[in-house]
Amino acid sequence: MSGIYEALAKIVGEKYVSNRMEEKYFYSRDQGLTEPCKPDYIVLPKTVDEVQAIVKLACKEKIPIVVRGAGLALTGLVRPLKGGIVLDLKRMDKILEVNEKSRYAIIEAGVTTGKLKAYLEHYHPSLRFSIPDAPPSATVAGNVVIHGQGRLTQQYGFNSDMVCGLEVVLPCGDVCRIGSCSISPYWFSKGPPLPDLSGLFLGWFGTTGIITKIGIKLYPNKKIRDVEIFVTDDENLVPDIIARITYTEIVEDVNVWTQPYPLIYRGIHHITAYVTGDSEEEIEFKKKMVIDSVRDYIKRKEGGFIFLTPDIKPVLLEMPQSSLTRFADVKRGGGFQYAGPIIPIEKYPEAYRRMVEVAEKYKTTWAIASRVIGRGHCMMFGFSFPFSRIDPSDMERVKKALHECDLIALELGGVPWKAEIPAQQEILKRMDQNTRKLIGQIKKLLDPYGIMNPGNWEVD
Amino acid sequence: MKKANLSSLQLYRCFACGYCKFTSDFVDYNCPSYKRFRFETYFTGGRLWLMYAWLNGEISWSENLANIIYTCTTCKNCVEHCPMGFNQDIVNWITSVRGEVIERGLAPPNIRDFLENIRKHGNPWGKPKDGREAWTKNVSVRKFKPADDYLLYVGCLASYDNRAQEIAKSLVEILNDTDISFGILGNEENCDGNEVFMLGEKGLYQLLAEQNIKKFKELNVKRIITLSPHSYNIMRNEYPKLGGTFEVLHYTQLLHDLIKSGKIKLSKTEVKVTYHDPCFLGRYNWIYETPREILRSIPGLELLEMRRNRGNSFCCGGGSGNFIMDLLGGSEDSPNRVRVREAYETGAKVLAVACPGCMVMFESALKDEEMEEKLVVRDISEIIRDSCRK
Fold first, then answer.
1. Residue B7's closest chain A neighbor by CA?
2. Same domain, yes or no, for A40 and A80?
3. What is the tens place of the pLDDT at every residue in A252-289?
């Protein structure tokens, strides 16, 4: 691959390309437990033209390309499994437009969730987007490309459902607009009423093209947020409690969490319901609706709302919720990873019981932080394990536990989210054979040389 | 001084989540070296992971690794915004690894020269010790006497750098018009050791600190005014650990008291000013309001805030000796250049500073950005001096 470095340097400038040991080391991994895979080059493009030129070079030279945002999926999806170029897109970080009336933003692929949040708060305070609880360094594009979830997911579905347009550099180097923006200056729809091509790029982990711009839907940002927590020690009640609360159609977000430590939390399922409003009256009304929805359970003493002390509310209302990131320091070892399968809500009790068994089998602590998706259509069942980076046996145990959790999720009819390679293979193994074949055909059609994040969604 | 035990450094606890890159409201990247270089290796998380890999022999020493380690300005933005329980240890981890670099004889030439010059000459340029008081020519200032209220500790930059000398002169002019008795050490002054400390040369730091403490005690110094927040930081927070307990004030604290007590009278000055919080006054010592109150006390002065201020202030890029070595220079993304553009966007005509290091960095940035006609950098002491003159 002689001359590749020089060619890349000519495209982006020498200071934004590296084949140095230190960048290779860091970009070979993410914060999770997968084995590192070293890239040959790390490139930081600034423009779509530069991305195009890099893709054309890679296509000509048959060099793999892996796109990286913040690398926070934790499942090794941004590791260059077959070497090649890692494209770090975070220099492409312009917020290009906010359409207040049609409620969407057009942003470059490197814009972080933190930056978009700050921008909207400052310039368009009446609008918000579905911010995930990943650290603010996560990119909006990275989050939607893995079908991430956020604070508005209970109301509007996966964050990828909130995409309203894409600009993609195809594996051949062509730039392609997806959605209404393909025929109009307005980015109001990712598909309808046209054929919805966004599905060719969302959830594919960069194996079909490189998203360079994204239209993302914005939603009303009410002046006040508040939170209530309903608790029960019977996991079997959780699905119905979720159904009742989401039936009200007035909650913003619904999370379910439990953990063995501190002991006060052990065996207790916390169903956290967030409400928003423009006045205290609106908030009080919505909270009353939520309380009324589960009043039967309170009367039967099967659960109840807990008093939230002034110190706990800010923790719960923070966006993103940094306490979730702090889980990485539970063992003072700098690591955590979670199995976050998307499961039917009625499977919560069994998923809970079986995954706790897995944790006990592998002698590791855990925490569950789940999020209801789309008014109760399914949920992300986040089962997290902390680990210590300096304890290889701990890391190995957690790795095995995570894989078992993926298998349990599949057994329960769920699907591993942002699946790492072994889980992808398990998914493909179980998938309808014609669906699997279609995935293979689409990949072959779009990426005939197999240079786009190779190793992921490999059908053959 | 106790040497850091490397095995006790828990670098592996960093998750590299990236909170440390930002301000508290995430409005922009606020880690100066990440903003400048944009590789993930240049933010605190990346840096800690690489340091750990190096200490464990996973990667070897290289020029690039040295650059990654020494482009950290120890501005404490990461400490301020890291959500983890170990956040207060981060700077110590970085300086300890830098200490190990020195122990292994791997310090790059510019770092080595910086430290060697301080060891031999008491200043990082290697200029003659007897040139330290050259700035006092035509300035009415005398040597410290044991009966004086304050020792004015001038520091290396304000002793040797032409622009920074103006800060010392203006402060002396202001103080000469009050009833405060003060003096300087002149050629007997030595480097304060803050940058040496931050660069991890703990042995040399200890030597400097002990020499300074000894001299201060011999002269019966009780109270010290520092021009530089860097000096203020090290004398206030580290010298006591070596037995050097003095009442240390940054000069803005003294001016604040003098203005409040009416000992300094200020005249009307109609000007729009924005203030840059120096890291060693702000994030290291939580002095945010004192300089602002001084500026607001000037009739007619309009104080405009940059979006990134106080605990979210964006470092000028000069910490850890970079006001001389400038390892983050040479780009429109260099922190000092980013910051002067940000200052200009407020509509201010004056960028007010309270640190000779920031002064030097921003003066250089104005030239690089060709903004000298649009914005001027003034130290608070100069602004006050001019307001007094009127």
1. A390
2. yes
3. 999 999 999 988 889 999 999 999 999 999 999 999 99
The domain that holds A29 is classified in CATH as: 3.30.43.10
Q: What's the pLDDT score for residue B4? A: 56
Query: Does some domain include residue A448?
Result: no
Q: What does the buried/exposed string (b/e) look like for A7-41 if buried means 16 or more CB atoms within 10 Å of the residue's CB?
A: bbbebbeeebbbbbbbbbbbbbbbbbbbeebebbb
Which domain range does residue A27 map to? 4-88
Compare CB distances from A334 to B14, B22, B331 and report the shortest one's residue. Answer: B14
Q: Is A117 on the interface with B (CB under 8 A)?
A: yes
Listed as ranges, residues in chain A with pLDDT below 70 are 1-2
How large is the ipTM?
Answer: 0.97
Domain final position from A411, A428, A454 = A411
**Same domain, yes or no: A215 and A238:** no
Q: Which of A220, A248, A274 is the last residue of a domain?
A: A220
Residue ranges and CATH numbers for the domains of chain B are: 8-107 (no CATH), 128-256 (3.40.50), 266-389 (3.40.50)
Contacts of B85 in chain A (CB under 8 A): 326, 329
**Contact in structure between B354 and B252 (CB atoms under 8 Å):** yes
Whether A72 sits inside 8 A of B38 (CB atoms) is no
pLDDT at B219 > cutoff 70: yes
In the block, residue with structure tokens 């990440």: B34
A15 has a chain B CB within 8 A of its CB: yes
All residues at 6 or more sequence positions from B223 whose CB lies less than 8 Å from its CB, including other chains = B149, B150, B151, B246, B247, B248, B249
Cβ contact, residue pair B84, A329, below 8 Å: yes
Question: Confidence class of residue B8 from pLDDT cuts 50, 70 and 90?
Answer: confident
Full-model pTM: 0.97
| Rounded Cα gap, residues A110 and A143, in angstroms | 11
pLDDT surpassing 70 at residue B221: yes
CATH of the domain at A133: 3.30.465.10
- A396 interfaces chain B, CB cutoff of 8 Å: no
Number of domains in chain A: 3
- CB-based contacts of B316, cutoff 8 Å, min separation 6: B276, B278, B323, B335, B336, B339, B355, B357, B358, B361, B362
Q: How far apart are CA A119 and CA A100, in angstroms?
A: 13
Q: Which residues of A touch B68 (CB under 8 A)?
A: 22
Type of residue at A330: V
The whole-number pLDDT of residue A75 equals 97
Q: Round the average pLDDT of chain B to a whole number and report it.
A: 97
- Give the per-residue pLDDT at A460: 79
Tell me how far apart the alpha carbons of residues A83 and A355 are, in angstroms, rounded to a whole number: 35
Mean pLDDT of B181-195: 98
Among B26, B64, B85, select the one facing A20 at the smallest CB separation. B64
A199 in the same domain as A117:
yes
Residue A428 domain flag: no
Same domain assignment for residues A232 and A132: no
Residues A59 and A100 in one domain: no
Helix (H) or strand (E) holding B385: helix B380-389
